[in-house]
Amino acid sequence: MILSHRSCCQRFTPIAESGIAGWGRSAIDAHSRVISATLRNWMIIVHHGLEVVLPDFWWRDAGMENFAPSSPAYCSHLSDTSQQVFEICISDIGPVERSPGIGIFNDNHEATARDRVVRILIGFRSGSSIPPVEIVEEPAGSAHRFKLTSGCHRFYCSLAASFTHVPAVRGSDIRTLDR
After folding, report:
1. pLDDT at residue 116 above 90?
2. CA nearest to 73, candidates 90, 48, 59
3. Alpha carbons 34 and 12: distance in angstroms, whole number
4. Cβ neighbours of residue 107 under 8 Å, at least 6 residues apart?
5. What is the pLDDT of residues 95-104, one digit of tens each?
6. Could you tell me which residue, 86 or 38, shows the higher pLDDT?
7. CATH code of 85's domain
8. CA–CA dist 12, 162 (Å, integer)
9. Is the model's pLDDT at 61 over the cut of 90?
10. In the beta sheet, which residues pair with residue 166?
11. How many helices (H) and strands (E) are present in the chain, helices listed first?
12. Average pLDDT for residues 40-62, to the nearest whole number?
């Protein structure tokens, strides 16, 4: 599938190739985009070159077919008043680097990847408060201004849902402890 891009923050429009037609859901900027390959039943989320696959049935299970964000970021409130929540542009955060064999959307001891993603997407749709992601500033000269340290599912679901920003708090990263 070939993508044509009109300008920053506008829709990407796939051009049918070899008789396979698809359509573009949205685009955040030249480095982040969401493509829905309708014949393959998955959504491909691309962020700074990292491709993440989100099954279409998870999207449908959450009732997101007609979702359009009404704000730049999802709703988030932090009960711990010692941390300030701020909105950060998705394109300022570098792609998540996981160990080989570990997917972006993965199971944990509490829920399956599907359950975690659907719960987040339902929260977006209903306007429920969802915890912010955690980020750290990258050193000067880095390819990206920030690194995501917690909230990978929330971050990539935000990108899939066409949010341009995510609510964030300052996190910690073992690599930053000696700075």
Report:
1. yes
2. 90
3. 8
4. 113, 116
5. 998 888 888 8
6. 86
7. 3.90.1530.10
8. 12
9. yes
10. 88
11. 3, 10
12. 90
Q: b vs e for 30-45, b when ≥16 Cβ sit within 10 Å of the residue's Cβ?
A: ebbbbbbbeeeebbbb
Cβ pair 17, 1 in contact under 8 A: yes
**In one letter, which amino acid is 39?**
L
- What is the gyration radius of the CA atoms in the chain, in angstroms? 16
Task: Give per-residue pLDDT as tens, 129-166.
Answer: 999 999 999 999 999 999 999 999 999 999 999 999 99
Say if strands 165-170 and 133-137 run parallel, antiparallel, or are unpaired: parallel
pLDDT tier, 12 (very low <50, low <70, confident <90, very high otherwise): very low
Q: How confident is the model at residue 81 (pLDDT cuts 50, 70, 90)?
A: low
Which residue is associated with the tokens 């009404």? 70
Please tell me the total count of domains within the chain.
1
Cβ partners under 8 Å of residue 81, min gap 6: none
Exposed (0-12), middle (13-18) or buried (19+): which is 62, by Cβ within 10 Å?
Answer: buried
Structural domain that includes position 74: 2-176
Residues 87 and 167: beta-carbon distance below 8 Å: yes
Alpha-carbon dihedral sign for residues 136, 9, 124, 35: negative
pTM: 0.76
